[in-house]
Amino acid sequence: MAKTFAIVSQKGGSGKTTTTLNLGASFAVRKLRTLVIDLDPQGGAAYGLGLKPGDYDAGVNDLLQGRADIRELLVPSENPYLRFIPAGRFSNVAEIDRFHNLGKRLSLLRRAVMSVRDLCDIILFDTPPGENSLAVSAMNCADSVIIPLQCEPLALRTLPQILRLVREVKTKVNPVLGIEGVLLTMYDVRYNFTEQVTEQVWKNFPRDLVFETIIPRREDFSKAFIQGRPAVFENPLSPASLAYLQLADEMIARLAQNMLSVPSPIA
């Protein structure tokens, strides 16, 4: 059964969608059956996979309104191990607001996701930034959360807010929810504050709650996004791609270790 991760962040521009797409692509390259589910009505994940609204008929929005079954929403990618479910089509602000309200239907989305976990090894949720019903809905479906953190002081100041939301969801909604890790993104050695933020995170958080992998600030991501492909597919040997492949390997190693540490049932 699939391991499910919600990628969440308090602040926009933290590399959340970039992380979702490139981590998903990295798992696919490692031949793990991966499903990316977009809960962000901005539709950045679809664009980053080269999809236009006309390329799909429905999305999570239709699922939450009872107009579609989740298995009907699966969209293939160029890699056979990676599939995608778009958020849906939105023609105006009112439809986006309604989608956010539909996010409160926690049990509906959870049941739908549970019905496809046998088809996948990994499920990743891309969520809107901030504290909202769609992020909560993703965390209700998830085993744990990944928190991309831009290596900038403002992003560091918002981190306690998203951690508080994770604790609330764990307490009130999903008691098995864990934190997979804080992921340092947009690391740039040209700026002193980058190193200062990194040091603060390592100093104030347990080692097992911060990924060893650090994602660099690279133009490769923007170039690949414009081409409608994850950087891992567009240029697999670039430093940007290698960082996400390393992150996937780090997570795979954790999953393997966790499986080994589960005690065997008594005969």
Written account of the structure:
This protein has helices at residues 16-29, 44-48, 60-64, 93-102, 106-114, 133-141, 153-172, 192-204, 219-226, 231-234, 239-261, and strands at 3-7, 34-38, 75-76, 82-85, 122-126, 144-150, 178-185. The relative contact order is 0.18. By secondary structure, it is an alpha/beta fold. The model is unreliable at 262-267 (pLDDT under 50). The protein is 45% helix and 13% strand. The chain is globular, with a radius of gyration of 18 Å. It contains eleven helices and seven strands. It has one domain: Rossmann fold. β3 and β4 (82-85) form a beta hairpin. The chain has a seven-stranded mixed β-sheet, with helices on both faces.
Strand-helix topology:
Blueprint: E1 3-7, H1 16-29, E2 34-38, H2 44-48, H3 60-64, E3 75-76, E4 82-85, H4 93-102, H5 106-114, E5 122-126, H6 133-141, E6 144-150, H7 153-172, E7 178-185, H8 192-204, H9 219-226, H10 231-234, H11 239-261
Parallel strand pairs: 1-5, 1-6, 2-4, 2-5, 6-7
Antiparallel strand pairs: 3-4
